[in-house]
Amino acid sequence: MIATLRKAWAFLLRDFRIESGYRTSFLMRVVESVMVLGLFYFLSPLIVLSGSPALARYGDHYLPFVIIGVAFARYFDLTLRMFSESIRQAQVTGCLDAMLSSQSGCVPIVLMSSLYSLVSGGTQLVIILVAGVAFGIHFGINILATFVVFVLSILIFVSFGVLSAAMVVWLKKGDPIAWTLSGASAILGGAYFPIQVMPPWLQKISFLLPITYSLDALRLTMLRSYSIAMVAKPVGILAIMTAILLPASIMLFAGAVRKGRKEGTLTEY
Hints:
The protein is an all-alpha fold. It is built from twelve helices and no strands. The mean pLDDT is 81.
């Protein structure tokens, strides 16, 4: 365990040193996030959803609804893409074979190589939420329930992220999992509007997406102070998804790496 923590810290320190040489890039991402908040702040008075039963579930105000949706949807999308992007970068720089052949094992290496993106994206997420308070948003957060939902959601998107990395190892270029899930989540997952305003057939599709349950539970625990028991249904669904997808994605990624080693295709891109 201590050796693993040391390796994880080494990856974090390495990526921080690389990122610290591009401070402008990080600052631009933070400014972009705050600009998104400003966009919805001025747009929200034009969106008439007050009195809607779908919005009343979360407090009857559109701005807090959409800010939580956009902030966490952006973070989950980052979590989904960071593993495949790490693999792709290693491919084009010619170090994928060496990286995945280390004694640490292919799965821990890929997970640890994406830790900095997780921390950096989390910093931007916090900045958006803090800026939301400055814009007058009131959060009534149940800390424990929010933490549980957040961790389960991260594990779900980590699972899909590892699957995406397996697809990159296999296909070399192109990531159908991230492309499909990211696009569907943005439109159908309830980030910008309640899913109840969509036609019934689209709502059925949205219920297949993990982000639908994540955003629903996060809004209830952050805006209405719901406890874990009160969001038991979405939490239970997320837990089941995690229990199935996480080990399955790890096995598939390890299998894709073994296949690449056997065929000698890990260095191809």
